[in-house]
Design brief:
This protein is α/β, with parallel strands linked by helices and 212 residues long. Helix content is 45%, strand content 12%. It has one domain: 3-Layer(aba) Sandwich (Rossmann fold), CATH 3.40.50. This is Lysophospholipase L1-like esterase.
Length: 212
């Protein structure tokens, strides 16, 4: 009888399977980005604007990339956005949405070089996931951006228009409307938790408004 009782209790183990099925129905959004996306300083990966955007939309986030990287810039990790995409994301099942966010670290390269690298990445993504929606987010600057940032922004916007993917421009936003320390870390570059919260609200609203 003891064995039968143990066997009778086994169906309870099906509950996680039901939960797993529910999770599979949750839309998945993936990100490729730099330190703004993966976290820097006291802001961890699960506290960034990327994760918070997914949380506000009720989507499941998968975040790839590394600080200092870009479409051309390899950063200290020695890889570009394209290499991060292939290594961290391309082998996974296709997501509902891929956000390529960056360009901040590409300002030292000619716009033509950035444009070519960005186009190559978009082509690569479409080759792996032809049905995945792609959104490009331009370089993020919490404070005043240098002229090079606008050249990178324009190069990326051109690629997005040509490849028919949505482009969102953080440089067109005003992030500091009070004390700088509320949104900007002491390094003068990266956002605080409050800054990430602002970025998340902006990105969430922009994604909801952008055509699918």
């Amino acid at each position: 009888m003891g064995g039968q009782g143990a066997a009778a209790s086994k169906p309870v183990a099906r509950v996680p399977a039901v939960q797993q099925a529910a999770q599979k129905q949750t839309p998945v959004m993936m990100f490729v980005g730099d330190s703004f996306t993966v976290g820097s300083g006291p802001v961890r990966a699960w506290e960034t604007y990327a994760t918070e955007t997914a949380r506000q939309l009720g989507w499941q986030p998968v975040i790839a990339g590394a600080g200092g990287t870009g479409y051309v810039s390899e950063g200290r990790v020695g890889r570009t956005f394209q290499q991060s995409f292939v290594a961290e994301l391309a082998w996974r099942p296709a997501p509902d949405l891929l956000i390529i966010s960056g360009g901040h670290n590409d300002r030292r390269w000619p716009a033509t070089t950035v444009r070519q690298a960005a186009a190559r990445l978009v082509w690569t993504v479409k080759g792996y996931w032809p049905n995945t929606r792609i959104v490009m987010v331009g370089p993020i600057w919490i404070g005043e951006a240098p002229p090079q940032a606008y050249r990178v922004r324009d190069a990326l916007a051109e690629v997005a228009a040509r490849e028919r993917v949505a482009f969102l421009d953080p440089l067109g936003q005003r992030w500091i409307d009070g004390r700088r320390s509320e949104v900007l870390l002491p390094d003068g570059v990266h956002p605080t938790l409050g800054g990430h919260a602002k970025l998340a609200r902006w990105l969430t609203d922009a994604l909801r408004a952008a055509p699918a």
